[in-house]
Specification:
Chains A, B: Pfam families: HTH_5 (PF01022). 2 copies of one chain form a homodimer. Chain A has one domain: Winged helix-like DNA-binding domain superfamily/Winged helix DNA-binding domain (Arc Repressor Mutant, subunit A, Orthogonal Bundle), CATH 1.10.10. In chain A, a hairpin with a 2-residue loop joins β2 and β3. Chain A is built from 5 helices and 3 strands. Chain A is globular, with a radius of gyration of 13 Å. With about 100 residues, chain A is α+β, with helices and mostly antiparallel strands. At the A-B interface, α1 and α5 of A face α1 and α5 of B.
């Protein structure tokens, strides 16, 4: 089974996390993950972009450390890395999720 | 006296604020403003970029609502808009300033 790379909390940088979150499509993904359960397939997100653009957005979030991605068969399941984010940047995720 | 435009708190968007903060030079400016007093001239910041690039970074921060900029003679004085940020996005600035 292929696996995808995820930064450890101490490897996450504030630049990368803020850059990852500074996009309306990626904020939509993060909010949907925060509102629902984990392990949502990419296909479960209704995003106003093409599949390849959507794949790019998920990858940016994963490489910054914001979400986890794991293969299940041919699907990729996504989860919010709340614990890692709260450990590395306390209060940041809550402040962003509270913003409307 | 010329004056520069600043968004009202309700006009600020999370995208723009996060984009403005998602840059190491701009985070340096914000941290220096948070650590020191307000009304620091652009020339008081030791930034590893050219003057024109530095001017660009200050403008991005102002247009997002993160800093204020006001002319005093030919100098531009900068201040952190902590109150506006805390009103519009509670907890966000504190979480970002606490991150290292």
């Amino acid at each position: 089974m292929r696996s995808l790379e995820h930064p450890e909390p101490e490897e996450m940088t504030l630049d990368a996390v803020l850059s990852a979150l500074a996009d309306p499509v990626r904020l939509t993904i993060v909010r949907q993950l925060a509102d629902g359960h984990d392990d949502q397939a990419c296909i479960a997100f209704e995003l106003p972009v093409s599949k390849s653009t959507s794949t790019h957005h998920f990858r940016v979030l994963r490489e910054a450390g914001v979400i986890s991605q794991h293969y299940r068969g041919t699907a990729i399941l996504n989860g919010l890395r709340s614990d890692a984010l709260n450990q590395r940047f306390p209060g940041l995720l809550d402040a962003i999720l509270a913003a409307r």
